[in-house]
Write a structure and sequence with these properties.
about 15% strand, elongated, binds acetyl coenzyme *A, 15 helices, acyltransferase, 2 domains, tubulin N-acetyltransferase activity, Aminopeptidase
Length: about 475
């Protein structure tokens, strides 16, 4: 029980009072001074109960505070007290409700805007008094005062206890999946379409609910996939009735259900943080590859395959993009070389490179990494030089063979690609202008992308060594 330093009895002329944004009990009568006093005490009560409610639900901060209530236009808090308890009486429970404008999915998966929709926002009964019917008492008082019915209330991230409470006292079981944190129960929309699937009406049609899955032909279902409704009992009932039907039909249904279960990539647990909602297609993509381990069941390998497919598609797209870039560069180079009598697409590297120290394998641009070593060998040859004629991708099947790109960054007399040190390293030797001597190896190599070569500083020809990593894409 929650006791206070002041006597709560004047604030609670009856066990349950209602408090709105003026922070005064609805029963309050008094002058200005009494009004201020009551407001102050009521704020303390609300803050304390809100805090306990948050702790009880494991929330970081309270959903309910006096300040929030003061700022709200359409929220009401119901407080339950035991004026007999202790010396000053004790407050036992809190129920905050309000109306909200919500975009919600109906039972067909269509989006609907619900204005001033009744919502249960916070509910708490002190631990020492739970499961004694006090919550029901508080809730019933609220329903009478607000003229609401439970099935028409959306519930903001209900806890397991509240779900149990609503199931027990109001028979609310079957939820309508939502993309937000609110939980709705079938019958919420109350129109004819919604009633088709209501547990109070006839059995749900198989197209709409199968094995607790919410399945429609709507765009939402197509986008999000089938969604878990959390009702095992309906399945048992349905299948019980069909016990006398043919075994084959039953097996077909089971196969269909197994296939549908594979569609589920996210089954939210019911709870304050896990209100049932449609599956997220982006999450499905992201987790497709790894979902199999955590989910169990039969959908794991299918999801993993899908993840591989997506990875393949991504790789293909990347390859296509690279080819397009490469083709474009080759095309431009061909255009540039058109006036030449010999349409040699690639000039001999020796003609343009003036190596300061001619290493045996340094005269061609670093060959790109290819998938097949044999293919690479057939093109580059033992001396790792390009053949006299240029092979196209159609000849080689090599998607990443980028002579054209090599041309685009073709070494000039001021550059050299030195392949001796490491396959994935290159050394750029930059010719310094004459007379511009440097005293320290790092003096003017301040470019963050470059690192000074381990050989350090100037070569004997006056080149300054820079190392850089190849871009793997090329
Ligand atoms: C939108 C929101 O506010 S979500 C947050 C809801 N609040 C909380 O989870 C805070 C902790 N829980 C509570 O404060 C209370 O349990 C309430 C408010 C949910 C219900 O108040 P109570 O006074 O216990 O309800 P009441 O006695 O009328 O009904 C009892 C039924 O509630 C459910 N319930 C209550 N306590 C529990 C519990 N500890 N575990 C599981 N179910 C519970 C059960 O269905 C229970 O019936 P049962 O005892 O036959 O199993």
């Amino acid at each position: 029980m929650v006791e206070f330093r002041f006597d709560i009895k004047p604030l609670f002329p009856q066990p349950i009072i209602k408090v709105a944004s003026n922070l005064l009990p609805h029963t309050f009568r008094g002058d200005r001074r009494q009004c201020l006093d009551a407001t102050s005490k009521m704020s303390e009560i609300i803050d304390r109960l809100g805090q306990l409610s948050a702790i009880s639900q494991g929330l970081n901060k309270p959903v309910t505070t006096a300040q929030r209530l003061r700022m709200s236009e359409n929220q009401t808090i119901y407080l339950l007290a035991d004026t007999e308890a202790g010396h000053n009486g004790a407050v036992i429970g809190l129920l905050k409700v309000g109306t909200k404008d919500l975009y919600l999915f109906d039972e067909k998966g269509q989006t609907r805007k619900m204005e001033q929709s009744p919502s249960i926002l916070d509910f708490y009964v002190h631990e020492s008094r739970q499961r004694a019917g006090l919550g029901k008492r508080l809730f019933e008082t609220m329903l009478n005062e607000e003229h609401w019915t439970p099935v028409k209330c959306s519930v903001d991230r209900p806890s397991e206890k509240l779900l149990g409470f609503l199931r027990k006292h109001y028979g609310l079981v079957r939820t309508i999946p939502q993309a937000n944190n609110f939980v709705l129960y079938e019958g919420f929309f109350g129109d004819e379409a919604s009633q088709n699937g209501s547990r109070n009406g006839h059995a749900a049609s198989p197209e709409r609910t199968k094995n607790g899955l919410h399945i429609t032909d709507s765009p939402n279902t197509q986008l999000f996939g089938a969604t878990y409704l959390g009702d095992e009992t309906s399945k048992q009932k349905r299948f019980g009735r069909r016990g006398s039907e043919s075994q084959q039909h039953h097996q077909q249904q089971q196969q269909q259900q197994a296939a549908l279960l594979q569609q589920i990539t996210q089954i939210s647990p019911n709870g304050r943080y896990g209100a049932p909602r449609p599956t997220c297609s982006m999450a499905e993509i992201i987790h497709a590859g790894s979902a199999s381990s955590g989910k169990g069941g039969g959908g794991g390998s299918a999801e993993s395959n899908r993840g591989n497919e997506i990875a393949d598609i991504a790789e293909q797209l990347q390859m296509q993009h690279l080819q397009a870039v490469e083709n474009h560069i080759e095309y431009e180079l061909e255009q540039e070389q058109e006036p030449e009598p010999e349409p040699e697409p690639e000039p001999e590297p020796e003609e343009v490179i003036t190596p300061p120290t001619p290493p045996p394998k340094s005269k061609t641009p670093t060959p790109p990494k290819v998938r097949s070593p044999e293919a690479a060998e057939s093109i580059i040859g033992d001396n790792r030089r390009a053949p006299a004629f240029q092979l196209s991708k159609q000849h080689t099947g090599m998607k990443n063979r980028s002579f054209g790109v090599g041309m685009a960054v073709m070494p000039t007399g001021k550059m050299e690609f030195n392949q001796e040190e490491r396959e994935d390293f290159g050394v750029v030797k930059i010719n310094r202008p004459l007379g511009n001597e440097i005293t320290s190896p790092v003096q003017d190599n301040t470019d963050a992308m470059s690192t000074v070569s381990s050989t350090g500083g100037l070569t004997d020809q006056g080149y300054n060594d820079l190392k850089f990593y190849h871009n793997k894409l090329w």
